[in-house]
Amino acid sequence: MRRSMFAVLLGVSVVASGAAQTQAPRPTDPAKEKRLAWFREAKYGMFIHWGLYAIPAGEWHGRRCLGLGEWLMNRCQVPVREYEQLTTQFNPTKFDPDAWVQLAQDAGMKYMVITAKHHDGFALFKSAVSAYNVFDATPYHKDILKQLADACARHGMRLGFYYSQSQDWHEPGGAGNTWDFGPDTAPDGKTPLKKYDDYLRSKAEPQVKELLTNYGPVALIWFDTPRMMTPERGQRFADIVRTLQPDTLIDGRLGREGDYRSTGDNVIPSEASAEAWETPATTNDTWGFRKDDTNWKGPGQILFKLIDIVSKGGNYLLNVGPMADGVIPQIPQENLRTVGRWLKVNGEAVYGSGPSPFGDEYGEWTSRNARDVRGQKLFLPDAEWRATVKPGRLFLTFFAEPRVPFEIPPFRNQLLRAYRLADKAPIPLKTENGKTSFDMPRPMLDPMATVVVVEFAGDKIVR
Ligand code: FHN
What we know:
There is one protein chain. Helices cover 26% and strands 19% of the residues. It has twelve helices and 21 strands. Strands 9-8-7-6-3-12-11-10 form an eight-stranded parallel sheet, sandwiched between helices. The chain has a four-stranded antiparallel sheet with strand order 15-16-21-18, covered by helices on one side. Strands 17-20-19 form a three-stranded antiparallel sheet, with no helix packed on it. Bound molecules: ligand FHN. Ligand FHN is lined by residues 68, 70-71, 224-225, 265, 280, 287.
């Protein structure tokens, strides 16, 4: 396991025998790396799922629609003509874009991504190609994205747009609405039965052009669920992005290769990777607001996931689901701000940090040959500490007090000194029989997580 992980870190390929051999270096694309520079530095972003579905909030005419809040139309098979009546009630008078950006900044998040159009087909922006949008179809009569883009520009926050390119339950040609418009494809699962390309060309592609034209610099476009998206169709979207804003990143769910890999929802890989990647994740169990979902992740859980992801080379895109009036629920706001206060003190361990040079802290594969639900060998994670690095500095983040002196995994660089990141208090290093360890001062300075910095000679850790 470790060998494969380091092979990935070093950019070498692994041959069938399992032995790591240095092959031709991984082809790098300098333009892509340049586009990705801010993303690799940022590490932590805010995802916002907001739309008409925040009004029913998980319930349709007194009936609970189980599952994700933004999937209500699909789960309860609400006909288009009924669902679109929600537009008459969409009037989020408490929407305060500056407050949203302020929350993201207080939380220590460095970019925001909002659902410009989700699968229900309703756009949070004024669109010339579909009147099913917040400006033309609601009493609110204002462009949400414009207000958020202006607030982001005022506060120096990067803004990206989620756009459901394939599923559009409002349009007869879009994918996904089988209850009004019948199946998407023939039984072969490939041949479209709908005028899918007409939908792409008349709504999805022009709307993506609008997003890239009317709202200033767009950090990224977050495409999703690429049903029926052949590489050729995906390429059409990529061409639009590259032509209109060459610096805009494309996520990993377009249907052709993007600039970075998107993991499954709430999925954190077990190993580190050198390629850019991102985990989209929920703060409770839904993306779009549901009034019955109060299963909030606490600050400690959020912080662990953030550091775990960064120690594996990834980004954490953490969601909030505002309510219909435009207010983000209070509990996740408080939880995010708690993590943000920690990051104010300890952010050096996170922003711009590289993945762990070790890997053993992640846990181990089960020796009992158990498999998970996907048939993969089961991985048993450890959650006591994680490592991140910067030139000359190793950051060891502890989520629990080590019960014995902590032995630094061996590497060849000379160790110079250690200290607690939060208050710079020196931590004596002890070397015996070639092994270096330290005692974490008790009680831990911050029980949620305490970072110890170990300075070493040279830029990179050599094992
Ligand atoms: O179907 C969507 C879902 O509603 C949500 O937007 C997530 C976010 O990653 N993406 C899809 C499921 O993977």
